[in-house]
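fyi for ur records
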Amino acid sequence: MTDQNERSYLELGLQQAESPLWVIPRDLCTRCGACHVICPTNVVRFEDEYPFIQTGGCIDCGLCLDVCPGIEFNLQEMHREMYQADYDPTKMGGHYRQAYVGFSSRPDVRKEGASGGVVTQMLIHLLREGMIDGAIVIGSSPDDPTIPMPFIARTEAEILEAAQSKYSVVANTKVLRDLRKTKERFAFVGVACQIHGLRKLQKLNKRMAERCVITIGLACRGTLERQATRDLLQVQGVNLEQVQKLEYRGGPFPGKFRARYKDGSIQELSPFEFKDGAFLNLMRLYMPPRCHLCPDYSAEFADISCSDIFLGGKDGDYRYKQGTTVVVCRTEKGEQILKGMVEKGALYLDPIQPETLEMSYSHVRRHRKAIPFLRIQDLRRAGRPAPEYGIEVKSRFSDRIYDLFYRATYFFTPFPRLKILILRFLYSPLGTALIGLKVSVKKVRRGLKARKAWSRGA
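which gave:
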């Protein structure tokens, strides 16, 4: 479909042509997969997780557009429907009943998880209690560990195998099509855009809504194109044929990008923790454009949202040095599940104050609550399609200046060969030394910020 990049069903309507149509323009697509689930004739397919329509079998019902969160997700309407309150675009944490920090009571689950193992433990608990028949999670292709694959985990072993974050584009919602003709109850784990797609899907398919026992949202600053992992492996000289599994958060908290080989050995793909090393470097080069248009960092429309917590301590290190999860309980059903887990000793949870939660998300406030709306305004002025969120956010001049500089850091995103050269530099001795210096400065600043916050009683 490379010769038809600009053709989409949204823009052209149904065209009976040999070449299929993208469902919507690719720069708007979140690649959640909801359109595949809702399609009554099963003609929505995928290329690099972008959905396209095989026009010969399309009946022009428009359901794929109705369910699409990439072109429209009314934050105000959905917020009122779920929480009976107006949407507040200034709150990073969104609406919630109570926020906690905590971790799994099982050491093996906590070790395997990206932070505190809360999500994995929650799914195991729900399965053991007979509350779900399966969970929508992300694993890897058995043929290529760089390709994330959504699947329905129906055993504890499968849930454990899927532990940890996968920093790569994946249309996890699409596997719900396999559940359409069953009566299985499921838990859904996904980032904000995937939760948005699921919520719209539930409006159009009531049986799907009834059988979704719980939605667990993952905080997300943005994902990576699949090529990011492949290019990193190439630069680091990794033989993909010998790789059994890729770990984006392997080892002690907060984890590092690692390759686990078939002979049991492990190679670290970056000398630094994932956040300051590989992910940050790759994000500047491989983050999909649509991620810059998303205002929802903390998965505000999930029943329970989970994230890392990187608040600093006075020593410049993290305040929570072991894997610990921020758990934001938003709905009554989420509250009941967490309460049952704590009572049975499956989770350890400590409440945190609203200001602590907002502080833990402050590092991405501008990227999620200002920049998306600035860029949407720019798209509309240029006469190009832009996502509709049902709210208007006034921009500040300082945000506009920040965004100009921020965009410059993504200058090399469209150039594949230059990206490889940049990666080679970043992982050269000089590049590694420069990143190390930056990490050291960041640690000092984190300590100063923590002491200042603690002096105010935060």
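The chain has two domains: 2-66, 75-363. thats all i got for now
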